[in-house]
Amino acid sequence: MTRRRVREAAPLQVYLVADERDRLERLADQLDATKSDVIRRGLLALERELQSPTSHPALRLIGIADAEKPGLAAIAAAREYDQEIGEGEEASWIPPASPHTRRGSAKGTKKRRAR
Predict the structure, then answer these.
(1) 3-class DSSP state for residue 56?
(2) What pLDDT sits at residue 15?
(3) 71 assigned to some structural domain
(4) How many domains does the chain have?
(5) Contact, 16 vs 24, CB < 8 A?
(6) Domain range for 67
(7) FRET pair for 45, CA 20 to 30 Å: which of 54, 67, 111, 114?
(8) Is residue 102 part of a domain?
């Protein structure tokens, strides 16, 4: 036979103001539980909430933008912005013209000045 681990309960004293006591009593009645059970369940619920990935502040941001309905002007402005950024990036890929090369002249042929 396996030995069961005995849970040792320790008393806890909590000071509650009138509305908190009323809330605790109302919850105990609604749940058909003791006040102690309500507090224990509350601790478990709070712990689960804090450990849940969905309660992380950064993760709560996911999907917020889906609720926003941008107007057509906002969409057009965003596309124009993206187009400008893309064109600017592509323009930076072209090496600048060398100041020593003349336009229209064959490569390697330079005219000499008469002295």
Answers:
(1) coil
(2) 96
(3) yes
(4) 1
(5) yes
(6) 18-91
(7) 67
(8) no
**Residue 91 near residue 83 (C-beta atoms within 8 A):** no
pTM of the model: 0.43
Number of neighbouring beta carbons within 10 Å of residue 28: 16
**Residue 54 Cα distances to 44, 46, 60, 67, angstroms:** 17, 13, 6, 18
Q: What is the pLDDT of residue 87?
A: 87
Low-confidence residues of the chain, pLDDT below 50? Answer: none
Residue type, 102: R
Distance CA 45, CA 31 (A): 14
State how far Cα 91 lies from the chain centre. 33
Give the pLDDT of residue 18.
96
Residue holding tokens 């849940």? 52
Please name the residues in contact with 53: beta carbons below 8 A apart, sequence gap of 6 or more: 59
